[in-house]
Write a structure and sequence with these properties.
Blueprint (H helix, E strand, L loop, with lengths): L22 H10 L7 E2 L31 H15 L8 E4 L2 H11 L6 E6 L1 E2 L1 H8 L3 E6 L7 H8 L3 E7 L11 H14 L2 E5 L25 E6 H4 L8 E4 L2 H15 L4 H13 L2 H17 L16 E5 L5 H12 L1 E2 L1 E2 L3 E2 L5 E5 L4 H21 L4
Helix pairs in contact: 2-9, 3-4, 11-12
Organism: Polyangium mundeleinium
Family: Belongs to the class-I pyridoxal-phosphate-dependent aminotransferase family.
Protein name: Beta-methylarginine biosynthesis bifunctional aminotransferase
């Protein structure tokens, strides 16, 4: 166990229900309060490069100028090439808008198409920030689930057809890794068209598909782009959340409308970040994907050795969503952090899911995962001594 000499407050002092911050952010702040302690932090689901990738030599020239609002041409060209290559369907520069990460893209889309009182169908579990954004623009989120890539389309049409104006999808799904089957995605696109709803496909994990699985995008299906947006980013697919570079793909008309919104808010995305993103797109992310694949293999082999943990090996994505044998997952996460120095993120980071779940990042360094698994097993044993497990 990781036992630092510094005094540790009781675990009840880690997370407060009165805080405006998420439980994830509160646990990160807790670690900052004890710089002398050594923590094992596995709350982030961003895969980590085995080696550090540097910026281009000419990067400094981007610091002294505003980048074009739509995005730098070299980055737009690389994004268009990536999307066209992966989808075997040409994407033009006029269909792309560079954003400050995928969440920025989602916020602009939701705001541009806000419909007070309308229903937004959200594939669940869903990152809590997404339904919160939808509510802020007048939508009422309603959650639906996919299982092995399938969705009950008939139930969605029967229950919510009259007031649905937005459908949000995430494939591979964060945090379960479920990948929508091509015919299911096609049916969801058709449903959106039938209802006059906007469909947003969040594909920030589309590099990560395992065991011969394939990630399908709306652009593979020949659907009309008029009411469809695809969102992506450098954060997960290229392990670069600090760049804050994302992009969206839609019709040139939709991109033009959102370009004005972006220009009013922040003029442009950081030119230096765009230059580094261009460099990363040139290099590719095969090394990163392989690191995630190795972490997936390790976790699938090692997690069954910890009594009581239940999980499914994900088809895609960068994490395993594991259910712990505890009655109060927040209390356990606080206990693990305060007593053992293990920082976990729980299902409280999501909506549309219930249970004692934590997410375990497949893209963390092997040594970090080894330490985390050892502490997780020890933590459950220690927790069992003070709290009867179900």
């Amino acid at each position: 166990m990781n036992r630092a000499n510094a005094a540790r407050p009781r675990c009840s002092g880690v997370v407060s229900g009165d805080s405006p911050l998420s439980t994830l952010q509160q646990r990160l702040l807790y670690m900052e309060r004890f710089p002398e302690r050594r923590f094992v932090n596995i709350v982030e689901n961003v895969p980590q490069w085995p080696s550090v990738e540097g910026a281009p030599d000419s990067a400094w020239r981007y610091v002294h100028n505003y980048a074009p609002s739509r995005g730098q041409r070299d980055l737009l060209e690389r994004i268009a090439a990536r999307e066209s290559r992966r989808r075997e369907n040409d994407v033009t520069l006029e269909q792309i808008l560079v954003t400050n990460g995928a969440l920025h893209a989602l916020a602009m889309i939701f705001r541009q198409h806000q419909q007070p009182g309308a229903v937004a169908l959200c594939q669940a579990p869903v990152l809590g920030a997404v339904p919160e954004m939808l509510r802020s623009y007048g939508y009422r989120p309603v959650f639906f689930k996919s299982l092995d890539g399938r969705v009950d389309i008939a139930a969605l049409r029967r229950l919510h057809s009259s007031d649905v104006r937005m459908i949000y999808l995430n494939t591979p799904l964060n945090p379960s890794g479920d990948i929508l089957a091509p015919d299911t995605l096609e049916q969801l696109c058709a449903l959106a068209h039938e209802l006059g709803a906007i469909l947003v496909a969040d594909m920030v994990y589309d590099s990560y598909a395992f065991d011969h699985a394939r990630v399908t995008s709306p652009q593979d299906l020949g659907v009309s782009w008029k009411n469809v947006y695809v969102v992506n980013s450098m954060s997960k697919n290229f392990g670069s959340p600090g760049l804050r570079v994302g992009w969206l793909v839609s019709t040139p008309e939709n991109v033009h409308a959102l370009l004005r919104v972006l220009e009013l808010e922040n003029i442009s995305v950081c030119g230096l970040s765009q230059a580094i993103a261009s460099d990363l797109l040139d290099r590719g992310n095969a090394v990163l994907v392989e690191a995630v694949r190795a972490g997936r293999q390790m976790l699938s082999e090692r997690l069954p050795q910890i009594a009581g943990i239940r999980f499914d090996v994900p088809a895609g994505g960068t994490q395993i969503f594991a259910e712990l044998p505890v009655t109060d997952v927040e209390e356990f996460c606080d206990f693990a952090l305060a007593e053992l120095g293990l920082c976990l993120v729980s299902a409280s980071n999501y909506e549309g899911v219930q249970g004692a779940f934590v997410r375990l990042p497949m893209g963390a360094p092997p040594g970090t995962l080894e330490n985390a698994l050892a502490l997780l097993g020890a933590g459950l044993d220690a927790y069992r001594e003070r709290t009867p497990l179900p």
